[in-house]
TrEMBL record:
This protein's name: Glutathione peroxidase
Active site, per annotation: C35
GO biological process, one term: cellular response to oxidative stress
Pfam hit, one: GSHPx
Top-rank lineage group of the source organism: Bacteria
Species annotation: Planifilum fulgidum
Family classification: Belongs to the glutathione peroxidase family.
Keyword NAD: no
GO molecular-function term, one example from the UniProt record: peroxidase activity
Keyword Lyase: no
Keywords from the named record: Oxidoreductase, Peroxidase
């Protein structure tokens, strides 16, 4: 099993197979524009700029399941991310990350790396690190600063 068997709609409405990222280290994050953790977009962008040439991709999936902290349209979300945080990593359309209607990718991620609430995602900005083979290797809590993940990213970028 790997994340490569899934696809998702980009923020601009195109269906994108995650197999397009095969061979890269992925950091998959459920995001929101009106969350206390929203400033993590800045650190995520810093990670992306630092490591993308070495094989990192950050994939952001906006989600409105936690206190309606992502109420905007795809266009509004994209504009917010670009103007407020200069985000250049891939953004996807809003998804559900928990419950019976959760996107299949997030069902896989949470089954592969349960957290404090088991297979549930606790809040926005839960992060999943995926190795070059598409396997989930670590899950990070929403409050974990993306900068604190840098060492783990470097470690996985060194592995084939």
């Amino acid at each position: 099993m790997s994340v490569y068997r899934f696809s998702a709609r980009t923020i601009t409405g195109e269906e994108k197979s995650l197999s397009d990222y095969e061979g890269r280290v992925l950091l998959i994050v459920n995001t929101a524009s009106r969350c206390g953790f929203t400033p993590q977009y800045r650190e995520l962008q810093e990670l992306y700029e630092t490591y993308r040439d070495r094989g990192l991709e950050i994939l952001a999936f906006p989600c409105n399941q936690f206190a309606n902290q992502e109420p905007g349209s795809e266009e509004e979300i994209q504009k917010f991310c670009e103007t407020q945080y200069n985000v250049t990593f891939p953004l996807f359309s809003k998804v559900k990350v928990k419950g019976p209607d959760a996107h299949p990718l997030f069902k896989y991620l949470t089954e592969s790396a349960p957290g404090m609430l088991g297979k549930e995602i606790k809040w926005n900005f839960t992060k999943f690190l995926v190795n070059r083979r598409g396997e989930v290797v670590k899950r990070y809590a929403p409050q974990t600063s993306p900068r604190r993940i840098a060492r783990d990213i470097e470690e996985w970028l060194e592995k084939p």
